[in-house]
Amino acid sequence: MLDHLTTEASNPASEDLDEMSTLDLVNLINGQDAGVALAVGQQALQIAAAIDAISTRLLRSGRLIYFGAGTSGRLGVLDAAECPPTFSSDPKQVIGLIAGGPTAMTTAVEGAEDNPELGAKDLQAIGLSSQDVVVGIATSGRTPYVIGGLDYARESGAYAIGLTCNDNSELHSHCDLVIAPVVGPEIISGSTRMKAGTATKMVLNMLSTGAMVRQGKTFGNLMVDLRATNSKLNARAKRIVKAATKLSEDEASRLLEQCNGEVKTAIVVHHTGESAEQARILLSEANGHLRQAIRGITRERSC
């Protein structure tokens, strides 16, 4: 049943793996990994379309929900968990689900991935709505848990994205959009935690980062959507304000104090000369997009 899958095929380059020197083994894995980025790059159009779909739904108060089994599920949970500390996003905005529940993050839950009803039930349990986007992750492209969840998502009106590392997989007919970086056979046959897992992590990085950038979470490449609530974040906030305003450290610190530790507000105040209260209004009108808030007031003054 799995014989036709690229991810399950034997890799000719590693047929003598157990007889290789350690250095040759390392070089082989590294050489094989080098092709992963190329495979992901070939899916650029699909990834961009997914980011736009996710961003549109998030702007409407929808959620991004990853779900999968085994390695695929763990990578989804990891990416979701990284969004709040990286982008100060609401922890409920990006969610990761894994077949078998939290226990499956560290311990295999036998049979969980083989149950399509479980995929639907897990999505139902979080109140999936038509405003949400789901990303079903299955490197094989055939995991019943994921396919069952994708079917339920489409029935609910949610936008369904499938992520697999096999072309023309079963997953394709259960999604609105498929991202399929084909990385080829693994060094250890069927060990999709390797190249397929790397490809999955790269795609998820792009999806969450791209969607958050579209939400106005960055100013250039600066993480501006944070509040200085402890000493570590206060130091980071000062560095960001300094970089965005060219102020000295002392000046950046004073500006942040005036703006209640709000980095975005401080940067708008500096660039527009407005009060902190007015800066917050400008940001709200620009849906949190810092550059748009600054350009908006600048444009008004030039008219």
Notable traits:
303 residues, alpha/beta, Rossmann fold, Helicase, Ruva Protein, domain 3, 2 domains, 5-stranded parallel beta sheet, two-stranded antiparallel sheet
Short description:
With 303 residues, this protein is of the alpha/beta class.
Structure, explained:
- There is one protein chain.
- The chain contains eleven helices and seven strands.
- Helix 8 packs across helix 9 (263-272).
- With 303 residues, it is of the alpha/beta class.
- Strand 3, helix 5 (144-155) and strand 4 (159-163) form a beta-alpha-beta unit.
- 51% of the residues lie in helices and 9% in strands.
- 43% of the residues are buried.
- It folds into two domains: 6-214, Glucose-6-phosphate isomerase like protein, domain 1 (Rossmann fold); 218-302, Helicase, Ruva Protein, domain 3, CATH 1.10.8.1080.
Topology:
Elements: H1 22-41, H2 44-59, E1 64-68, H3 70-87, E2 94-98, H4 116-125, E3 133-137, H5 144-155, E4 159-163, E5 177-179, H6 195-214, E6 218-219, E7 222-223, H7 231-245, H8 249-258, H9 263-272, H10 276-285, H11 290-302
Parallel strand pairs: 1-2, 1-3, 3-4, 4-5
Antiparallel strand pairs: 6-7
Helix pairs in contact: 1-6, 2-6, 3-6, 4-5, 7-8, 7-9, 8-9, 9-10, 9-11, 10-11
| Biggest sheet layout | 5 strands, parallel
Question: Helices and strands: which structural class?
Answer: alpha/beta
The rough form would be described as globular
CATH homologous superfamily grouping of the largest domain: Glucose-6-phosphate isomerase like protein, domain 1
- The spatial strand order of the largest sheet comes to 2-1-3-4-5
CATH top level label of the largest domain: Alpha Beta
